[in-house]
């Protein structure tokens, strides 16, 4: 981090929420996403009142931060978060899910929470595959991308098309904020951190559900070197999953 | 004079829960328990409590998980097909050591089955249908008053053992009206839920977060499970505590009985009527009614066999409790069975009637 952009959004590191090191395979970006969530909570002085609900999968690695945490079911985190926020409105309630967790098995839970306009924040790490189980096809897998269950590459006639979750979320009246970021470059990281901050701000304002999708590298399952992954995100993922804010409204509707 | 109110069984669920200090209800509509969710939708907001209609029963149980993890008295209510969808969540709740109450108003299965009464979820509620290994108390009321009182007992036992408790109603007692005393019951005091998530800095210890998780890596950071085996030992210990301390059953006309009927729920009421008629004919028949289906009072059942009494299991299904009764008597006596094929009509409105039970008593004695 250097230069002008670095002064806008700093990498502050975790002061209070560090517990044990965030884990991941070499080049995995889930720990970066998790740490960023922790950093923003600390910067907003919300880490002490935060409750994190995770899904199942590598993205759940955020559970090792020293924050009150509930490790939910596969896909059910928005439901679990719904109850916690309704009963403890003073808490900052955030779910941390993977793409398979959020939009495949948990699609009903995710859409239910958006329909009701729950005042929670959902962070979805998108690495285009089921990383924990060995790299199977996800709803977000790119056309032509090889996975262990699409060995010839994703064929739309067989496996359909990638789902655009941030754009989908923006269509819900109960959603106040929806954005997609990446952490493959310093600039993208800074935008992402800003999106996460905006999302938490919406929850503080009681504006409705806030959603941030973060593109995230998975070197072992992508069969790439970590540095190759960074370029692949720029060259392949971002053209399919454009970055930016898709909705930013002061109240739901 | 005791004040009694005419209440429907399904609404007694709600009165009982409110008298137990319910904080939130999460649920999804399903027949035959829709009065429950409608009552809570109407009454909880008035009382400053939380009501959420979920997008599915799977959603409802995961909401219950969140509310329970946050330290509140929470519940859901469903029937067979919805209960099937809750199995995943049940396993998580039991494994994560968080308390909640689930009401199942049984209807006819399997599958879509029937929306009318039956007792076809006995195996499912006593065996744990979710990912394996957990056990939970099942209370089986047979009157509207008991539904009301058992709701309160259920919340107490759930908090006492940090484990889900099921109240197994059915489409008969859920839908009948009876005069009920709607009184809050007294229970022994329980410790604060210091393990609940509410933000790391709200806990008494400096910088020590709470972690609720359905695995040994878990929430039970607070008790410290160093490995899978230690976690299993903890669960096993809890199962034994519940099995020893919470087993409940009652008998009727058992003193001199030569034949003991074993029945629970609405069928136990039917059997009481049949026993009264049989006694008038001089037939020595009594009733052993399990109140907790898990833990089942196997010892009381075995004692009947030890006394040389025959046993007749009557349940509105194709034979479920009867298997556990056979296990309990260890082959020491004959176990007869009367099930839902003996209902008075072949449609789903059919019931096991006192007259049919009486016929069976006469046949055996």
In summary, what is this structure?
The complex is a heterodimer of chains A (253) and B (365). Chain A is α/β, with parallel strands linked by helices and 253 residues long.
What structural keywords apply?
heterodimer, A: 253 residues, alpha/beta, Rossmann fold, seven-stranded mixed β-sheet, two-stranded antiparallel ribbon, 10 helices, globular, disordered N terminus, B: 365 residues, 2 domains, five-stranded mixed β-sheet, 12 helices
Task: Explain what you see.
- The complex is a heterodimer of chains A (253) and B (365).
- Chain A is an alpha/beta fold.
- Chain A has a single domain, classed as Rossmann fold (3-Layer(aba) Sandwich).
- Chain A is 38% helix and 18% strand.
- In chain A, strands 2-1-3-4-8-7-9 form a seven-stranded mixed β-sheet, with helices on both faces.
- Chain A is globular, with a radius of gyration of 17 Å.
- Chain A starts with a helix and ends in a 5-residue tail after the last strand.
- Chain B contains twelve helices and 15 strands.
- With 365 residues, chain B is α/β, with parallel strands linked by helices.
- Chain B has two domains: 5-180, Thiamin diphosphate (ThDP)-binding fold, Pyr/PP domains (Rossmann fold), CATH 3.40.50.970; 250-364, Rossmann fold, CATH 3.40.50.
- Helix content of chain B is 37%, strand content 18%.
- In chain B, helix 11 links the parallel strand 14 (310-314) and strand 15 (335-338).
- In chain B, the strands form three sheets. A seven-stranded mixed β-sheet of chain B has the order 3-2-4-5-7-6-13, sandwiched between helices. A five-stranded mixed β-sheet of chain B has the order 10-12-11-14-15, sandwiched between helices.
- Chain B has helices spanning 9-19, 34-43, 57-69, 80-85, 87-95, 122-127, 144-161, 228-245, 265-280, 298-306, 321-329, 354-364; strands spanning 5-8, 24-27, 50-53, 74-78, 100-106, 137-139, 164-170, 177-180, 211-213, 249-252, 259-262, 285-290, 292-294, 310-314, 335-338.
- At the A-B interface, strand 1, strand 2, helix 3 and helix 5 of A face helix 3, helix 5 and strand 9 of B.
């Amino acid at each position: 981090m250097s230069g002008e952009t670095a002064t806008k959004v700093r990498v502050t590191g975790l002061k209070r929420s560090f517990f044990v090191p965030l884990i991941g395979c070499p080049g995995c970006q889930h720990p970066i996403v998790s740490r960023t969530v922790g950093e923003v909570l600390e910067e907003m002085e919300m880490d002490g009142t935060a409750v994190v609900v995770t899904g199942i999968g590598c993205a759940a690695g955020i559970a090792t931060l020293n924050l009150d945490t509930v490790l939910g079911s596969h896909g059910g985190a928005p439901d679990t978060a719904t109850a916690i926020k309704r009963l403890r409105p003073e808490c900052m309630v955030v779910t941390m899910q993977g793409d398979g967790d959020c939009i495949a098995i948990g699609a009903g839970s995710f859409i239910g929470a958006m329909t009701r306009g729950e005042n929670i924040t959902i962070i979805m790490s998108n690495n285009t595959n089921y990383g924990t189980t060995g790299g199977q096809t996800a709803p977000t897998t790119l056309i032509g991308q090889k996975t262990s269950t699409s060995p010839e590459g994703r064929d739309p006639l067989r496996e359909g098309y990638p789902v655009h979750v941030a754009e989908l979320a923006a269509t819900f009246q109960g959603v106040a904020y929806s954005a997609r970021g990446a952490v493959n470059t310093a600039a993208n990281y800074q935008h992402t951190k800003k999106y996460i901050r905006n999302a938490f701000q919406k929850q503080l304002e009681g504006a409705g559900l806030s959603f941030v999708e973060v593109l995230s590298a998975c070197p072992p399952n992508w069969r790439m070197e970590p540095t190759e992954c960074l370029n692949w995100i720029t060259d392949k993922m971002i053209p399919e999953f454009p970055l930016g804010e898709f909705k930013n409204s002061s109240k739901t509707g | 004079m005791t004040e009694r109110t005419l209440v429907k069984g399904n609404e007694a669920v709600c009165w009982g829960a409110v008298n137990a200090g319910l904080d939130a209800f999460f649920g999804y509509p399903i027949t035959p328990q829709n009065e429950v969710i409608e009552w809570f939708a109407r009454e909880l907001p008035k009382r400053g409590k939380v009501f959420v209609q979920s997008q599915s029963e799977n959603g409802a149980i995961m909401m219950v998980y969140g509310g329970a993890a946050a330290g509140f008295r929470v519940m859901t209510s469903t029937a067979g097909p919805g209960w099937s969808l809750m199995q995943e969540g049940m396993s998580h709740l039991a494994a994560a050591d968080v308390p909640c109450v689930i009401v199942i108003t049984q209807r006819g299965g399997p599958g879509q089955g029937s929306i009318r009464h039956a007792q076809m979820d006995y195996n499912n509620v006593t065996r744990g249908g979710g990912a394996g290994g957990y056990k939970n108390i099942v209370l089986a009321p047979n009157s509207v008053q008991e539904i009301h009182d058992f709701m309160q007992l259920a919340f107490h036992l759930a908090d006492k053992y940090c484990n889900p408790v099921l109240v197994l109603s059915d489409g008969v007692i859920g839908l009948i009206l009876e005069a009920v005393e709607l009184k809050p019951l007294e229970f022994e005091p329980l410790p604060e839920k210091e393990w609940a998530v509410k933000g790391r800095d709200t806990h008494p210890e400096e910088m020590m977060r709470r972690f609720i998780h359905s695995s040994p890596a878990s929430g039970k950071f607070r008790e410290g499970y160093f490995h899978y085996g230690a976690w299993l030992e903890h669960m096993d210990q809890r199962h034994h505590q519940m099995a020893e301390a919470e087993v409940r059953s009652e008998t009727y006309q058992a003193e001199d009985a030569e034949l003991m009927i074993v029945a629970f729920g609405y069928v136990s009421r039917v059997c009481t009527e049949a026993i009264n008629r049989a006694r008038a004919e001089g037939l020595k028949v009594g009733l052993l009614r399990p109140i907790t289906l898990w833990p089942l009072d196997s010892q009381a059942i075995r004692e009947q066999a030890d006394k040389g009494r025959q046993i007749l299991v009557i349940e509105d299904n194709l034979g479920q409790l009867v298997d556990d009764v056979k296990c309990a008597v260890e082959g020491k006596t004959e176990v007869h069975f009367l099930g839902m094929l003996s209902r008075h009509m072949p449609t789903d409105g059919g019931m096991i009637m006192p007259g049919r039970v009486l016929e069976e008593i006469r046949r055996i004695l």
